[in-house]
Design goal:
about 210 residues; Arc Repressor Mutant, subunit A; Tetracycline Repressor, domain 2; 2 domains
């Protein structure tokens, strides 16, 4: 066995686990298999992650955190709300296209009890995912204030709907429920959302406060 430092050993475990989860499924992969293919003792795996659930949550957390950091950066760089929303939608589909295997594992195999149990680690993971509603709310507020977006419903409700559109269409595409590829979905969702949220004729550039709370 080659010597590996702590970061390399940890990364090797995550890389192997991601591949095995994708190939065999979460439930059909054992910690012994992960340890063997990663070239570490099974105890090392438990030292770093505590359990197989811990490995899965780490894969989930790191992917979601990377995604959210990118989304937050784009939201802050937009010159106006509509432009920021377009950038966010394109980023969403491009990022998940580039990380399709990891995201597919999460979609297909996320253990049901991890999505509902109330321990701190699982709750933290769910809260990471919900940050997208906050990001979209900020972009919508910017658009309302600069006159480029005109949601018909309260900001928070509209943000939750947009998040559902993004994640729902992605999920259906990646699981084969619909046959539309992510690259095409990106264009369709962007066009649909911008049209639905565009100011009424003659209202472009006017600021309004409705729906900002």
């Amino acid at each position: 066995m080659l010597f590996m430092g702590e970061p390399s050993r940890r990364d090797a475990i995550l890389d192997v686990a991601s591949r095995l989860f994708a190939e065999k499924g979460y439930n059909n992969t054992t910690t012994a298999e992960i340890a063997q293919e990663a070239g570490v003792a099974e105890g090392t795996l438990y030292h770093h992650f505590g359990s197989k659930d811990g490995i899965f949550l780490t894969i989930f957390d790191e992917m979601v955190e990377e995604y959210m950091v990118g989304a937050e950066r784009l939201a802050g760089e937009g010159t106006n709300g509509a432009g920021a929303l377009s950038s966010l939608i394109r980023f969403h589909f491009e990022y998940l296209e580039q990380n399709k295997n990891r995201f597919l594992v999460i979609l297909r195999d996320f253990p049901n009890h991890l999505a509902t149990e109330n321990d701190g680690r699982s709750a933290e993971s769910r809260n990471r995912f919900r940050r997208m509603t906050d990001i979209l709310s900020l972009v919508l507020t910017q658009g309302v204030n600069d006159g480029t977006l005109h949601p018909s419903f309260p900001i928070r409700d509209t943000a939750a709907l947009l998040r559902g559109i993004l994640y729902g269409t992605t999920r259906h595409s990646m699981l084969g429920i619909i046959d539309t590829p992510l690259s095409r979905l990106s264009r369709v969702v962007e066009g649909y959302c911008l049209k639905a949220l565009s100011p009424p004729p003659g209202g472009k550039g006017t600021r309004r406060k409705r729906g900002t709370k």
